[in-house]
Amino acid sequence: MKKTSKPKLSLLMVLGLSFTMVMSACGSSKDAGPSTEPAGTASNNGSSTTTATEPAATPGSPLEEALQGKYKGTKVTMFGPFVDADQKKFESSIKDFEDKTGIDIQYEGSKEFEATINVRVDGGNAPDIADFPQPGLLASIAKTGKVVDLTKVLDQEKLKKNYNQSWLDMGTMDGKDGKIMAGIWNRSNVKSLVWYPKKQFEEAGYKVPETWDEMMALTEQIAKDGDPAWTIGIESGAATGWPGTDWIENIMLRTTTPENYDKWVKGELPFTSPEVKNAFELMSKIWMNKDYVYGGTKSIVTTAFGDAPKPMFENPPKAWFNLTGNFITSFFPETAKVDQDYDWFYLPPIDSKYGKPVLVAGDIYAMFNDRPEVRAVMEFFTTGESIKSWVQSGGVIAPMNDASLDWYTSESDRRMAKLVQDATTLRFDGSDLMPGKVGAGTFWKGMTDYVSGTATLDEALKQIQAGWNN
């Protein structure tokens, strides 16, 4: 489940196949987390509705020079995880830029990207640009000093205007001699979404909850009306357990500081800490109540994550809520229509002092070779225009503020993009940032053992934490 079109979906691709992301979708080699510096809490609310025909370039910048034809005939190599349909969408998104500038972006996609990129970098055969669906993998390479520091390449003031500060914080990592901007974000998936059957929900007279307490009250009301509110599945073959990590990550962002979240991801705040145990306990108030979960608590382990939403589309619905990233819509019935038959609401805040955090996944682009034409391409990738056609085709959210909300083809996607733009804090999928033996190992297994009843909560937390110690 990790990253292709969504976050964890790519994890499954590498494991055997798993947003997708969402944004991140997916096997990931996970290492160190992102910047330990706290995320900014300022919200960037301005969303342009312009329909620019070419990316906005800083005067005199490599991008402007490229658009003037200065680098015509040059080539820029790029390596990433996009293959098949995703590769076609990516290549379509860069075609207009290539036509206008004469720069040939030679993209190579591989399902074995995570396993290959280290070999290529270590062997002196790094691409000019690489697309990392897991920032933890980039963080481990950044420490070698082989990643170009983008603070020396890109206009920092422009970046601050075009990205929520949290995106810039998540792209700041430890270099060989201190902090560097190791990459910029180009595509995102959103993982703080609760999906529900819109038409029947409204017919039943239910109201979208704005707070966690309201959501729990509605969960109880639906139970009294005779239905379990939630449909949850964490079965995913070798990756069984991963959907549960999204619950914990979302709750952590709503009950403690971004700094604590970062410490947790880096192993500095243990799973046995009060902060993490509290997140599990809040999740348990839903998961461990047989009246709240379709099929009862033990069905969570045996239900495939992609099958979990199916009860919402029965007539009448047999369950009402499913917490998953935006990639889950590919598992919805083909006849179901967005904004009509189904919709989503933001997983509500728990403690108002932590604002409106959003859990995301996505793709971060890093630069390995510093030439003017490579700088131009990197600057292009910081513009909404670089992902416009992909946004218009559906399935991804642009992290840049200059990506017009008018580009999105559904109200659902427009609201999702606005949610990302207005978030007080953005944080990347935590299990994707942890070392694989934890994030894709003991974390998954501990979640599964706990919900199946083979381990108590305290036992499960100790089991997960042991992954850091081995």
UniProtKB/TrEMBL annotation:
Q: Which UniProt keywords apply?
A: Signal, Transport
> Bias category Low complexity: which stretches?
39-62
Q: Does the keyword Transferase apply?
A: no
Annotated region (Disordered) at: 27-64
Does Signal count among this protein's keywords? yes
Give start-end of the signal peptide.
1-24
Q: Which family does it belong to?
A: Belongs to the bacterial solute-binding protein 1 family.
Query: What is the protein's name according to its record?
Result: ABC transporter substrate-binding protein
Origin organism is Paenibacillus cineris
